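Intended use. Records like the one below are meant for learning the mapping from a protein sequence to its folded structure. Do not use them to infer anything beyond what is encoded.
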Amino acid sequence: MKWFTADLHFAHPFVAALRGYARDGYANDASIKQQAEREHKPLKNCVDWRKHDADIIRSINTYVGEEDELYILGDISSGGTWSVDQAIMRIQNLHVPRKNRHLILGNHELHSSTRTLEKLASVFGEVGRVGITEIRDGWGNNPHTVFLSHYQWREDFTQSKPLGAVSTNWNAPELAEYALPRMNNTLLLHGHTHAYDPLEFGRHHNEINVGLDAWCFEPVNEAELVDNWLHTAVSAV
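Structure written out for the chain above:
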């Protein structure tokens, strides 16, 4: 079975805070940065980011086993050296083996050094900026080709803010060039926006957000996508 997720953000205290992991007395919103500055504390001391990270690994391991394939569509960390190293330690705790792990690079991996890319390649069987794979229904039938990208369709960068989008850079112009141009009758799986709605850009828009925030902190499998979401997401199948 193929499983998909995105935007894990291991060892990224700010994102962990936005997801409700701020310690008692600290805000679960952007103002936590100012709180930490006023108290002269590192942000990571104000957030239980370790629990955030452990909960993600636990969630993935609950569903994704040794015989499965796991596709992570970007942003496994904040992109800093410490965060990347922490993320790699977490990835090694997944039940799914390295050869079955696939990483699509997100904006937080966009400017990774050669050394960082080597580290990522040590725990992923495949690393790339975009990808393509085939998904099937719960019976292993009804195959559909899907594109994989961290980003929504390029045309969506000029849309009004989708309902529930949390990421402040969801439509940053400098990232649009890395997004795929919209293709009719072709499904795109993506992350990036941190929206809570898998169909944040609307029905029949040929894309599904597979990020953690859109799936209640759980990965989503190919059968769920084909059986329950495909005909709603794609304009023509």
